[in-house]
Amino acid sequence: AAAGGASGEGGDPQIVRPARSLAEVPVFLVSPSRVLVPGARRSIHCYDTSLLGALEAARESGGMIAHIPWSANDSEGGRKMTMGVGVLATVIKETSSTKDNKFGEESPSLVVDVLATTRVRVKKVLGYEPYVRAELEEIPLLPGPDEATDMETTELWKAVTILQKELGLPASPPTADGRADDTVADLSTAPALLRASNEASFEEDNAASERAARALAALAAVAPESRAEGLMLSGSKLGEFVMEQLTEVRARLLAMKSSAAWASELARAVDGHGGWARRCMRSGGEYGLLEWNEQPRETHVHVRLRACTTPMSDTAMMRRE
User: Is residue 14 a contact partner of residue 233, using CB atoms and an 8 Å limit?
Assistant: First the structure.
C-alpha cells in the first residue's frame, strides 16, 4: 500500500510532516468520505470477525485504533490500493449488542464510541489477517494557520452552526449513504480535546497548535468527500482550504433557507387556489414564477420557480397535493 499525497512548495508544506512512529496499531479501513477528523466522535457497530479482532488488539494497546481512508485505482501493474492520511482514535466506550446475520441468526457484537485525536499516515502495512494492522507515523499539528485566518474560520463556523440549527440539520453533513453519526467538537473545546495526544506540538507553539486544532475540527462541517483532502494539509494551506469549504457550506445553507421560505410562500399560494401565483405570471414572473400548470379535475398542481437568490441551481420544482 502506498501513502497518498505529494510534497508542497515553498516554506509552508502542503502535506504535513510525520513525527513519531507507532509500531503496530489495528486499523479500520474506511472510504475517504467516512474518515473521522480530529476532535470528532463516532459510534461504530462492530460485528464481523476482523473488526472484533481489531478491537481486541486495541484494548491491548491502550484503546488506540487507526481510522484510515483508502481507495483502489487501476494502473498498468494491476489494481493498487492507496491509503491516505487518517486519524488515530481512542476507544472511550464499549456496549454489548447483537447483530442478525443474513440467515436471520443473532450473533454478539459491540458498539464502540471512538474519539479521533491526532492525524496519522500508514508507514508500513504489517498484515491484513485476521485484521488490518500497520506501523503508523504520527503527524504533528504544526504549522498552524495564521491568526487572521483562524478568526475568519471561527466566524464562518459560527454562521454555519446557526444556519444548521435553524434548518434542523446535523452539525456534520451526512455522507453519500445518508449517515450523519458523528458528534462534532465545538471549536472552543477542540484544542483541549487534542492537547493530550499532541503534546509535543503544544509545547513547541501553544497558540499555533490551538489554531491548527480549530481548523482540523472545523473539517467536520465541510462536505464529507472533502475531509480527507483537508487532513493532508497544514499551515496556511489548511486554513485557506477550511475557509473556502466553510464559505461554500454557508452559501448552500443560505440557499436552503431561501428555498424553505419560497416553499412556505408557495404553499400558502396553492392553498389560496393559486390567485397570487397567477398574478405573478401575469406580471411577468416578478417573484420568480416561470410556469403554472394546473390540470382540470386533478388535485395537484405543478409549479416551476426561478431560483432568484440561490447559486445551487437555475430552477427548483415543488409539488403539493
Answer: yes
